[in-house]
2EXR domain-containing protein
Amino acid sequence: MTTFKRFTELPRELRDRIWRLAIRDDHPGVHIFGQYVTGRHRIQFCGGTSFDLVAPSWRRYFESLDEYHSDENISTYLLDSGLWTACHESRCIVEKHFKHSERQVTLRRPNDHQRSFSEKELSEMATSGYFGGTPLEIVTVFPHRDLFVLQHNDLDKIDWGCLGFEASLALPREGFSGVDHVGIEYDRAWGDGYCIDEDVNCTFLNACVEANYTIWFIDRYLKRKSQGPAFKEESDCSWKINAFYASDRKLLEIKDYDDLFKDWEYIGPMETEWYDHMHHSLSFVRQLRADLTDQYITNDCEAEKPCVIGLLGWAPL
């Protein structure tokens, strides 16, 4: 509206269509958060405040895919955050799209347990919050299908059990029971599967028992080959989702070594040959899976079953 001064003179139906076109595509999204340190603005939502999640630091931004633009926050929540505050019309459109009124029904009736949502309804329902100190920067997420990336400063200070509930931006009585997908960026200092840092390994072994969501390790140095076969995306149900869309790229699952060496390429720094670096993150994930299985079997049936873990590379949109 700042560049088209006669926007308000357009027919209402056309204005509504333009607003709807500004909303994110209907894909599982990617939402990036930082880990709380003193002085940072926590994310707040209706009825609560996150203890761990803050706006991501510019120092941790993913490298821009456009050489003429600086690095930026590629979170999906920024694509349509401005629609909440642009004007009354845009707010009405975005509230309707994200089914905000349906969520408000549950908030107004805390003692009514008769109304419950199916898994399909919950997967299509969004929640929202904002970063403290910046009330105009609205964050909208889909707890049961989006990927929530935590750019950590200290793995030992993450409350893995509560993280999923905080990231959902919802109260317990809304029925979301936390998020389904959490992302952690893989650090090559952790090891390559053959030699893993013992402290890091212990941290993730404990995390995978506490978590009730899939933990995805993200390797920003593994890029899908442009000439490779089309990636088969799964989205029938939450636990099958294998592709998540940020603003300029999508994060895609890497399952095995055949898939890795055939369809992916390593684009990171190289100390030796590319082959020596290519498999590190996948080997790390596979070894962690093996350790989790051994731990579960050793502790017999009384042990809590660990969460699912996976690996994500990326491809440009």
The mean pLDDT is 86. The radius of gyration is 21 Å.
